[in-house]
Specification:
By secondary structure, this protein is mainly beta. The protein contains 4 helices and 10 strands, in the order αβββαββαβαββββ.
């Protein structure tokens, strides 16, 4: 008879509920009280957005609470690539992504890849390289002003200076993606 492992009860008892970076994770969390909205850590000179027809500011900073404004991809390509360099190093805890008000069922993001500290990634890199974490947003999770934030794997998003958000697909595989709001939650690391 093979020996019994004394580790078995402990390994099953303490497994993390956060999916690994290879798995898609659904938005199911409320943001903890010790996590701040990191909008004050974002300045326009530190942001790049590719494949968009409108300003990224509509979703990330200035217009993110307006139901009339959105960050829109090109008309014939639903992919978007947004890279944000924070003013200082942060610990990211959650991200919230909502579609444009009234158009969530069609054009809100569905599959999103996040890359921590990869400031020079382009579309090819995001398509072929392993994401720090993959997110899968269901339709109800992208409703403007109603959907939940997505909890991030705390071990993978410590000491983040740059976050790259790559929208692979939208809810209905429509030719255009529209994002009404993107919000990052976490804590600045005082250096």
């Amino acid at each position: 008879r093979p020996p019994r492992s004394t580790l078995f009860p402990y390994t099953t008892l303490f497994r993390s509920s956060v999916p690994t970076s290879g798995e898609d994770q659904h938005a199911t969390t409320t943001v903890s009280k010790d996590a701040d909205d990191l909008v004050s850590e974002i300045h326009s000179q530190n942001v790049e957005c590719f494949n968009s027809t409108t300003s990224w500011k509509f979703a990330v900073t200035e217009g993110r609470d307006s139901p009339l404004l959105s960050l829109d991809s090109e008309l014939d390509d639903g992919e978007l690539l947004l890279t944000i360099q924070f003013n200082q190093i942060v610990h990211l805890r959650a991200v919230l992504v909502h579609g444009k008000s009234g158009e969530e069922r069609i054009s809100a993001p569905k599959r999103v890849k996040l890359f921590a500290n990869k400031p020079n990634y382009q579309f090819d890199d995001c398509s072929t390289k392993k994401a720090t974490q993959k997110l899968l947003f269901e339709e109800k999770e992208c409703i403007f002003r109603e959907g939940n934030a997505m909890e991030l794997d705390q071990t993978l998003f410590k000491n983040v200076r740059t976050i790259t958000l790559f929208v692979e697909t939208n809810q209905s595989d429509a030719p255009q993606t529209k994002i009404g709001k993107i919000q990052f939650f976490g804590t600045p690391v005082n250096t």
